[in-house]
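Methods — Computational structure assignment.
A single polypeptide chain was analysed. Its primary sequence is given first, followed by the predicted tertiary structure written as structure tokens.
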Amino acid sequence: EYMGVGCAIVLSTFGGMLRACRPLFQHVVDQKWHIFDARDKVMGRLASCVVPLLMGKHKPNYTPENKDVGDFVVVVNCSAVHVSGSKKKQKLYRWHTGFPGGLKEETFDKLIARKPTEPLRKAVLGMLPKNRLQSIRMTRLKLYAGPYHPHPQLPQLTNLLPPPPSDDDTEFLFPTKVDDARRFHYDEAELAKFLGDNNTQ
């Protein structure tokens, strides 16, 4: 009888402790959006910056076991990512089709030409912990080969690229001004004068 009472007291006390600690783990996840420009960035170093954001390791409520508190990460210009040394020709990606003799391999330059976002995706996937949260975290990684993305809450990182060519641009001499994208614009009067002088000669 006394043993039963003691067990009941212990269980009730332990249950009260769990109920008291439960609000500490019931948190509201504040997921933010981050954007990276992969142009001329080393792929491994860029992936090492993306992975902590996907995992949420920069947050005070980070728990590595079963809570997903990571943020969204958008990477543009994945087709222009850089690798050091001779990895463009020597780095190999291997997979198996499942059939006899189905071992396939592909170099980095061929893979990025066929799938521009695949090398960076594989780099980030290899750095994430191999658990149930890996696939969930990968869904928050948005990779785009070009400079544009469809997320309105983030800015477009197109100020580092030249504007698309227009019909008014003439690839010739006599630049009159250079805009932020370092693209030349030409004055029609000076260009006509230059062409006239050359025709008279």
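Note: Residues 2-25 form the longest helix (24 residues).
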